[in-house]
Amino acid sequence: xxxxxxxxxxxxxRAVRRSGSGRASSVHPTQRDAIERAREIxxxxxxxxxxxxxxxxxxxxxxxGNDPCPPKDRRx
Length: 76
Prior knowledge:
Layout: E1 5-10, E2 13-18, E3 26-28, H1 31-45, E4 48-52, E5 58-63
Parallel strand pairs: 1-4
Antiparallel strand pairs: 1-2, 2-3, 4-5
């Protein structure tokens, strides 16, 4: 089963971290760069990107896999 990719804030920018992992797979200076990298990984692994706010709450999610409950929005 593919693991979701989380974009989380860090003091030195944003990190991409796989669900269940304590270590970041990559660190980026901007949120945009981190989201781009997380999307590349999620598309390859057919998983989900979860973007977190600075307070840790989830800001947004995008699914790139076999989503049993697809969103109704048409952003992507």
